Amino acid sequence: MKLKSFKILSLGVSLLFFASSCVKMDTYTGPDASLTGNVIEDGSKNNVQTCSGNFSIRLEQLSWDSTPAPQDIPVKYDGSYQNTKIFSGHYRVSIHGGAFWPVAPEEMDISSGTVHDFKLTPYLTISDFNAEMTDSTTLRLTYSLDAPVAGIPKILEVQPYLNTTQIVGPGASIYDFSDLNKIAVNKDWADFNDADKNGEIIVSNLIPGRIFYVRVGVKFDNNDKSSNLSNVIKITVPGK
Amino acid sequence: MKKRFLTIVAGCLMLASCQKLDIPPVDILTDDQIFGSEAGINAYLAQVYRKLPIEDFTYRPDGRNDGVGNVGFNLHHEWEHFYCEAAADGEMVGPYGGVDIAGGFGYWPYKDIRDVNYFIETLPTYAKNFTADKVTSLMGEAHFLRAYYYFALAKRYGGIPIIKYVQNYPEQTIEELQVPRNTEEEVWNFIGEDLDTAYQMCGETSVAERANKYVAMALKSRAMVYAGSIARYGSQTFVDGDARSQGLVGISADKAAGYYQKAIDAAKTLEGHYSLYRAKGDKTENYVNIFLDSKSPENILIRSFFAGEPERNHSFDATYSPNSDMNYMTAGGLSRTYPTLEFVQHFDSFDFVTNADGTPRRYNSQAEMAQGLEPRLRGTVYFPGDVLRGVPFDVQAGIYPSFSGTAADEVAKPTGTRSFILSGDHTTLRNGRLIIGKAGMYPPAFGNDNNTRTGFYVRKYIDPTKGISAVNLFTSTTPWIELRYAEVLLNRAEADIELNQTADALKCINDLRDRAGASLATAADMTVATYRNERAKELAFENHYWWDIKRWRIADQLLNNTHFHGLMPYYVESENKYIFLKELELFNRNYYFDKKFYYEQIPGGELATNPNLYPNNPGY
């Protein structure tokens, strides 16, 4: 046999092997399932007031493994969540983090178009939240706190959150207006007096002509030091 | 055709030569070679010590991979020493964007622990090659080394599997090899037991880089105050989860006293064998030399570095001095990490830079400000006006043509409305005077951090005897002091105070304060705050504080969306004076410590290979 034809033959044979190794197709289904829903406050039936990065929905797929690696779906600032690229299967679904009374994890089958709402009871509700400009650059915030259920974790701090978009809260706020106006509380709810429960925060030296979105948060000494949040108010600082 | 024939002949010849297959390999060391002589043993232990998780100059707490198999510890050709724990825990501000080190890097050294277990199992069968005493002391040393690895694991993860024997595959089944986690309490007890074994078996003395019985007790005093504080303070501040309810993290509070007492007992064994360094008359010079004098009686365990080998020297001198691009204090390298005002305030409030009426105090020179501060602080930090290698730390941040009003009002002014004059370089003059000092700050807009962001530089471990031309990358050989007697005294004082043994604590604290040139304490000062503050001062930048604020469970309070400050010197032109303003450090970064960071998560890859490691630590 000539060397050249041997080479060609070898090439042909190896190409044959190469091609034949590709006939086994991956027949697993893609991530065609989805899970969407809302996180609802048990009392008012409204979506809970939250913020990006505050808490999440944790999924653990039990179809294959009793100790799966968890995947989290962040809850959006309007209290809704969705993930449209999930593998169909049997999951344990739980709330990961957040300033709420714990709810037991639920097991469910997730397939295309699965909807599931969570009902949560926040540690504190922040009501009567009001924001008004007292002079051209000073903002006065008032709010009322109430604990639907006794025995909540210690309250660490109350603080305003200001941002230039409606996505505002812990982790999305302007430090100088938000963190610097933090009120260190560090006491239990049982020790709150009426003045603590009906609080006032002054934010000064706002920038004239700007629009801010503002809310108030109460931070707890719980596992993830998370916060209950008020609704968001848009304020316009008068121009010069 | 001829070629093919030759190939067949050669193949046949090769086959014929294969009769004797079971011959000793020539490319790996055999047990006979290793355990046959003291030289072999030393070579084996040298690589164990080399891999020991000592958080020295080259340690990267966020875990850089050096490309040859090391991550975090003992990196090959590592020079960026400003990526250190102190740059993330508030002692300093540095290249990290915040608390970037809290996730760790999945440290999981069971391969290295196996090397130690192998040594413990194999040495007895070669005991005839050595004297009985030698075998005993080597076995003790191995137990110290194993405890050291488990200490590095326990402080990161809490409870992890205790593996005391050499695992073998395929002799053992996969199920046997998937060892579940022990409780955190069992792990700390195991560390204590291994160190007790080391104490009983090791010799009285050793070379400075290796363990003797007192080195084991020094580490035990450290490990036991860790365990005691985790039991006491971890029971107050914690994240709930399955791992906690099963005891895999956390120790019950009633165990704290027992651990603290063990720490005291261990620390007391070193008395009379080690002492605080007091060789120099001047207290500041003395404190500086603790870290440079190889004959220090305070050194318990050190790691040496050697010239000429990139993986066995370091670059500390070149990476903590300013303005490398102008070769101002170094011939190369660059610095990026600087002590904070909050750190120096462990020593003094620094309120003296402001007069009673709130106006900044006027100084004739930058150097005048630091006069009269505690010598230990002067030996730890380079202050404005200090001199290194013949050039001054001129850290001037700008020039005020004139200054009136209070310091607080000036600092509160919105950015851009203050009247001082800035420059983006270290050469621009105003009326013949530099606007920004040669070691001074760049305005944040220029984004450069190779000069201080706080007004301070590190002095601890800096060798002042080297000339500028000798300070470059990979030229430092100053040893790292892993265990020194000052820490043992602090461990003992901490345990004493936690157990209300005030007299013994006072003795230890005042020994340290006397050496530091600080005012002496009284029995009434023996509080938790005092031992914590003393430890922060004495052990600054030595990779202790990060673990201390974690085990005291105060990191989530100290690093709670915290922004750190500096002390910025300005020249006031109209008065020919200097003023100092307490301001946010130039990058104004946010530091936040999540409570779940008190424990690192079990590495994902390990969870995948061993499901018995579940549940993961709380919060992950």
UniProtKB/TrEMBL annotation, chain A:
Using the record's annotation, list all stretches that form the DUF3823 domain: 34-119, 126-225
Q: Which UniProt keywords apply?
A: Signal
The residues the entry assigns to the signal sequence are: 1-25
Its domain of life? Bacteria
Instruction: Note the InterPro entries from the entry.
Output: DUF3823_C, DUF3823_N
Q: Mind telling me which Pfam families this protein's record contains?
A: DUF3823 (PF12866), DUF3823_C (PF18003)
Q: What is this protein called?
A: DUF3823 domain-containing protein
Q: Which organism is it from?
A: Pinibacter aurantiacus
Lineage of the species this protein comes from: Bacteria, Pseudomonadati, Bacteroidota, Chitinophagia, Chitinophagales
Automatic annotation (TrEMBL), chain B:
Q: Where in the cell is it found?
A: Cell outer membrane
Say yes or no: keyword DNA-binding present: no
Kindly state one GO CC term assigned in the UniProt record. cell outer membrane
Record's keyword annotation contains Membrane: yes
Can you give the residue ranges of the RagB/SusD domain?
298-620
Q: Which keywords does the record carry?
A: Cell outer membrane, Membrane, Signal
Per the UniProt record, which residue ranges are transmembrane? none
Name of protein: RagB/SusD family nutrient uptake outer membrane protein
The residue ranges of the SusD-like N-terminal domain are: 109-222
- Annotated PROSITE patterns: PROKAR_LIPOPROTEIN (PS51257)
* InterPro entries in UniProt: SusD-like_N (IPR033985), SusD_RagB_dom (IPR012944)
Instruction: Determine the domain of life of the protein's source.
Output: Bacteria
Organism expressing this protein natively? Pinibacter aurantiacus
